[in-house]
Each structure stands twice: as structure tokens, then as C-alpha cells.
Amino acid sequence: MSQPLSIEVFFDFICPWCLIGKRQLGRALARLRATRPDVAVTLQWRGVQLLPDLPVAGVPFAEFYLRRLGSEQAVRLRQAQVREAAAAAGEDIDFAHILRMPNTADAHRLLAQAAAIGSAQQVEALLECLFAAYFHNGEDLGDPATLLVAAESCGFLAAELVDSLHGDGRPFFGEAAGMAGGGVPCFVFDRQLTVSGAQSTEVLLGAMHAALARREQPA
């Protein structure tokens, strides 16, 4: 069998476009499996901390976006844009539930350590759980208790992951640092072909086929 198609996704938990991109990627992968069942895929999630300077306890969500966008009307328009895109991808994001913009350093450390010791299925479940905790339930991803409860629900032992939680707001600099060009989501296929942003299923599927076609070109 040929070498698996490598897909790396650079993301942050607080980015709604990353959740939307994850849904589009899932649809693209399903279509690839349906048409090319011979192609194996390895999928890796690379954490990128978008706001490394946030205090360890985070900041109030509403205040953060008001300062960032300048007016309540601008905030409403931006959130409406995101909700519309999310709905098209099959997601329901309710910003009213989100009370804090968290520091995500420990969430990324937790996922990285989970990926080192767990199965691909466990890591996928944990990623889904953390996205849901934030965007559906409004939980604080900067809270160690929230992170460990999520991990335990996915079959990990808290003792296996607790040392990944530094609790001091220290920035997360994983191997993804600098590779996403400052923007997420960012999809890299076979470490050669890069697609940035929450692109459509068709764009992501096209990138997969393009990456596979490159392998078939004469050296």
C-alpha cells in the first residue's frame, strides 16, 4: 500500500472558523473514502495559540469582542456571519453561552499529550469534546477541571494528563508555531499543499486529489 495521505490541521479551540473547517474537512474525507477507498489518511491536529498574551484566567468574552471590533453593532454583525457559516456546516454556535475568552495554552498541551499516549479515536473524541465544551456549553477551556473532565470522558486517566496543565498562562509553543502563517484554520496536505481558511468541502476535497495527483507525476 502506498504511503498514507498526510493531513495536518493548524487550529485554535477559540476560533469558530476552525470548528467550521473541521466539519467541512470531515465531509471531504467522507467523500474521499467513498471514491478512493484505497487511500489511507493520517490526520494530525496542530495547536496554534492565537492569543498567547491573554491572562491565565482569560477575559470576559463580550468585553473582549467589544474592544476588538469597536461597537456592539459590529459584534452582532460578526457573530451573525459566523452563525450563518456554522449553520451551513451543520453547527449551531450560541455566543450567548460563552462567558470567557480563555487562555488556551493548557488546552493545547492537554491535546498534545493525549495524542502522544492515546488512540486516534480518543484524540478525535477529545477534540470534539473540547470544541463542544466551548462553543455549545460555554465552558471555560482555561479551567484545568474542565479539561480533565473532558479527557476522562474520552477514556483518558486524569493522572496521565495532569502534568500537561501548567496553570500559569505560559504560552504554548508546539511544533506548529509559525507554520500556519498566523492564520487558522490551515490545512497542509502531504506537507506540500496548503489551504488556508474555513474552505468549502469541495475546495478541501480538491486539495486532497491534487496532493494525490502530485505523487503520480514523474520525478
From TrEMBL:
Recorded superkingdom: Bacteria
All residue ranges annotated as the DSBA-like thioredoxin domain in the record: 7-207
Protein name: DsbA family oxidoreductase
